[in-house]
């Protein structure tokens, strides 16, 4: 759903699954010698017929299946996976009666072949992921839909391994059982920024002083031999990482609510407070429920959110917990935190003037290609103008293995996504750069 036009103030070498206790068990089993994993076709027919007849009462059956994988595929672009667990290539040869009965119970709904060993193996991987993320399905139909989504998402991940031009990896994450198009419709909403004449950036440059020398030395990870940046010199945004200065709060998860605008704004204010020695978690829900200029879970603008915090203050999240729903705006007791205002910029000034001041709210154009991102420097397809997602720009760096410079961004899709909730975006040096990351930026003060 598009946000109605409104005036804004700125108008790894493994398959990379998530590892679970079941996987540890399965790895042990795999180490044993295979017992009768290759059988005759007639044996499969007999076992299949017996299993179908007895599935309703889940009597004891052990179906021995064949591991179909002939070896691990190499990740594209030489990107190293941050290994979680192998899926089809290391499937357990032993299937519990309960697992097979579950799969058989969904067969009548279509698109499931219980006689295919690969199908059984995929379903076992699906159940591991469901356990890892504590998924509960209320009906056979709901489980069936989730499994079909899992298969499609798995195929997308496997197909990406053949993309030799990619410098990033894909993997299953907490979206594993979701229709990715439906997820995108929930989380991504068009962002139009108007009234660009209000853009103002002060100060124009950040220079090294005796007081801030240690901070910028830390941000840029200077070695002792390199010393501090010279007093009076302009601080450049390259190689800055605000996490090194302990100025970034933990990654959060917006859930199935299009509230990225609130999370990005709150993340920037939390970072400001943390640099001022106040480590606090603020309430995104207050913004979702009370910031009337935005559309709650249907999208919004981070500069509106910052204005709200400037004039109304914002409570801590423990006093106003997140619901991943619009909620009601009601008075709450507790401490409120304020900002004086915010600096705003567009284009190269977002990096040159804002990022050197602190973690910066930016808008980007996200495609479905980014949903399964798991590591590396993202160089996939995305628009540079159709902005639809707000994130926090926390740094810039260079990957010596990939020989690429990148932007470092904090997302709000939880820590199972990306590189512990962060992602690295290819730096292209175009006017608004990759995915429009330098289109607009905001830093509170």
UniProtKB/TrEMBL annotation:
SUPFAM superfamilies attached to this UniProt entry: Cysteine proteinases (SSF54001)
Membrane-crossing residue ranges in chain numbering: 42-65
Entry-linked Pfam families: Inhibitor_I29 (PF08246), Peptidase_C1 (PF00112)
GO molecular function: cysteine-type peptidase activity
GO biological process: proteolysis
InterPro entries xrefs: Papain-like_cys_pep_sf (IPR038765), Pept_asp_AS (IPR025661), Pept_cys_AS (IPR000169), Pept_his_AS (IPR025660), Peptidase_C1A (IPR013128), Peptidase_C1A_C (IPR000668), Peptidase_C1A_papain-like (IPR039417), Prot_inhib_I29 (IPR013201)
Keywords of the record: Disulfide bond, Glycoprotein, Membrane, Transmembrane, Transmembrane helix, Zymogen
PROSITE patterns: THIOL_PROTEASE_ASN (PS00640), THIOL_PROTEASE_CYS (PS00139), THIOL_PROTEASE_HIS (PS00639)
Family per similarity comment: Belongs to the peptidase C1 family.
The protein's name in its UniProt record: Cysteine peptidase 2
